[in-house]
Structures are given as C-alpha cells and as structure tokens.
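Our consortium's second objective concerns turning raw sequence data into structural hypotheses that experimental partners can test. To show how far this objective has progressed, the report includes one record in full. It was chosen at random from the queue rather than selected for favorable results. The single chain below, 288 residues long, was entered without modification.
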Amino acid sequence: MEYDEFIDRVAERAGVSREQAAVLTQATLAVLADRISGGQAADLEVQLPEKLARPLRKSPQKPAEKYGFAEFVEKVRDRAVDVPPEAILPGIRAVMLTLRDAVAEKEFRDTLAQLPHEFREMLQEERRPEVGTQESAESGGDRTAGAAARGGQRAGGPAPAVSQDDALVQRTAERAGFPAAEAAELTRATLSVLGDRIGGQQAHDLAQRLPDASAQWLDEPPDTPAQDYGVEDFVSRVRDLTNDVPDDDITPGIQAVLIALRDAAGETEVDIALQPLSDDYDVLVQIS
C-alpha cells in the first residue's frame, strides 16, 4: 500500500482531515515501535513505504516497552498535539486497521500478540472480508494464505488463542510441567517464531501434521523465505510474544514445545526442518 492511500484510509476511518491523519499515523506508528520488540517492528517496517517505515525503525535487538493501553493512548496524544483530543482514540484505531490492510496477516497477528488485549477488542469492531469473497478478492485478500485461510478465520482479525485442549499444547504442558494456559502461550509463540525462522516450505509441511488449532501458528506461505537469526534472538522473540509466562519458563518451554512437535509431526520430519539451524540452537533442539 502506498503512503497516500494509507493516509486517505486513516482520514476516512477516523473522520479527520488528511493533515490530521498524517500526524496520527506518524504518532501511532512511533509509539507502536516502542511498545513492540525491535524485531517485530522491523518485520512491519520492511512491508511499508519509506514514510511509514521511518517511525518504526528501531534496533532489532530493542526490547518491547511494557505499558498498558491507556498509556499508549496518552503517548500518542502527546505526539499528536495538533489533533483534537476526541480524535486520538478513533485515530489510533484507524491507523491500526489500515496497518492491518497494509502488511502480511501473520505479521499483524504477531504484532497484536505483543499488545494489550484492548487492541484486539478495538479491532474486532471492523474486520476484513471473509477469504474467498468478491470483496476480499478486490481488496487484495491474497495475504490470507496459509493458516488463516485453512482455519476459516477472518484475515487480520484478532489473533486466536491456541486451545488448551490442543494435543500439542497438552504434550507441552506434560513435558514442561506447566499449567495448560502457560503451555498454550508458549506453543503459540514458539511455533510462530519457528515458522519465521525455518521458512515457508518447511513450516507449511510441518503444519500439515499438526492439529488445526496449533498448525495455524506455524503455517506460512511456501514461498516465504527463512529469517536468519541466532538462538538468543529466537528466545527473545518468543519472550516478546508471550504475555504471562515467567522469564525462567521461556527456554524450558521452547524445549518442551519442540519435543512435543517431534512427537506430533514425526522425528524425521522435524529434524529435516530444523537441520538448517545453526549450532547454537542445539541448546533448544537436542533435548530428550
């Protein structure tokens, strides 16, 4: 999506002038970049034109700043000083909805996973058309490939939780000795980061062997390239995608998910998928 179209959509959705929409967009994206991890901001940045990418540009190693929805709104208000106070919240919503239109569905879903629940509730009021409808085709709905299309969810809608009854979640909980809710969080986060790291074809092949609830977090379009980063960045990305998991549980949780993945998808298939990983990943994958 080009810059002018992005601003026009924000202006229309928020009911503000084009100039105010531009201010709201820059302010919201800048605060968003602080609130999510640097790696996630980078994933968004590369899919946007320069004027929109600029406020998202941070060091990939930057950790997410943890604060609530009300403080997010206040920070945007502080940056958008020329916008009427009553337009701030509609403006944030308009920017997030338009960002959802502009980037890949999975990247927006991963972004929402790092934000307070109020963002998901705010965006539920307006969702993209169903996959396969005429409106979806006309608006470039091909970004709904992979997990969203297979699961029948509305593309770009709020990120669905992995069910605690999912077989992979249950295996993870048993392996790690964690509560089901924590195991579900770790399963979702680990599979999502793993899909990015190993690339679309490997992720897609493994996802076909998993229960639908957990497969959607691993699945990627087959032509998605693998992202090259080390084990510390992998663990950091998983941490950023979990909300209520203690730091001490992150690494053993990832290990438990990968063991459960071997049980569910087959040891040979998982070993083939993980073979391109660098040696520093041994701490995660060579666990019996």
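The partners drew two points from this record. Confidence is low (pLDDT under 50) at residues 127-161. The CA atoms of residues 125 and 222 lie 31 Å apart. Both points have been shared with the crystallography group to help prioritize constructs.
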